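Sequence in, structure out. Go.
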Amino acid sequence: MSMHTQLQQRAAQGRPIRVGLIGAGKFGSMYLAQVPRTPGIHLVGIADLNPEAACRNLARVGWEPQRVQAASLDAALREGSTHVGDDWLALVRHPGIDVIVESTGAPIAAVDHMLEAFAQGKHVVNVTVEADAFCGPLLAQRAAAASVLYSLAFGDQPALICDLVDWARTCGFPVVAAGRGHKWLPHFSESTPETVWGHYGLTPEQAERGGLNSKMFNSFLDGSKPSIECTAVSNATGLAVPGNGLLYPPASVEDIPYVTRPVSEGGVLEKKGMVEVISCLEPDGRAIPYDIRMGVWVTVEGETEYIRNCFEEYKAHTDPSGRYFTLYKRWHLIGLEVGYSVASVMLRREATGVALGWNADVVATAKRDLAAGEVLDGEGGYCVWGKLLPATTSAALHGEGGLPLGLAHGPRLVRPVKKGHSLTWADVAIDTGTRAYRLRREMEQRFAAAEP
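Output:
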């Protein structure tokens, strides 16, 4: 029975999936836009640091005011409405909630939210992939120990890539490469919130109209978010990562099977079975027609002559040898698709992507020469960008271990770091009292960093 049919049945039976949302920013608002249009879903409560802003976003996406007038979570459950407040603990601890959608984008806080949700016996759909990138394998273990599910969020590219990889492997295809698209030139790694819109292709007016956060969007542009997302994919699928960061080969959709081959066969990969990101720009900045900038893809191998003949007979676009074929989705719809994950964890008891091991890491890397005493401002800011590395490389970096990007917001530098150098734990005075820090350190000890 399809998930949609099951949702319709739950609606008819008065047994909706009861959801709690933490964080009603851009991503959360996109999910909120779909909730009234999805049967069998009751968004019981929203927790946000700014409830007034959350209510404005609800109005922006078309919610009727009477839907959000519940005075408490108990009242929301009775009335079938939604309570908006700032108390995430009350939301997570309420027995009437089935699943929590963590959508704050704040990785240190997100770890607190998710660990408490597991302790309360609640499934978690994690939009804050930054947290998954630095401690996802242990988050998954903690969820399993509590007999609940921890899942990446559909609509975000990592879950969509994991879905394509699962499709390929379930059909019997070896996965040669998988990843997403991006708008990339090397100097974008130096971008700041002041320069992001010009590089990104939006005007400041368009950004303001959409309520877009310049720091968050800069984390996409400067390569941090692609590295974060590829880390999540690698840890969930076992695909390897490039030895010294993403290569961003430029290619049109038609050329993806050409470039996502091993170097020995004319492509860019160090070996078969890797993550990579395809750029929509040529090195000189020219736009590539029919690009994959907003999409995801997987390249598979036809191992036998019969399979390669089938590729040819059914007009599958392959590389010149006919061995490598790429399947893709040219678009992803961000928060508009999160409901798929909510339904999957509740109805199928299946995560839409979950970390299985520690294969990859994202290490904070200096955008400019940094001086001792400076305070790092994290992902998408003015100080550092995130570089994708094998976990083995990160763990051994300068004999001190790489500083994960997700924990690079707030620590003070204790020594200078040159532009382009990746930071280590020893470069910063970090708050060791957070659960996020302790979880990361525990993960380093419990998971042997291994390159697939």
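Check: Residues 158-184+223-331 form one domain. The mean pLDDT is 96.
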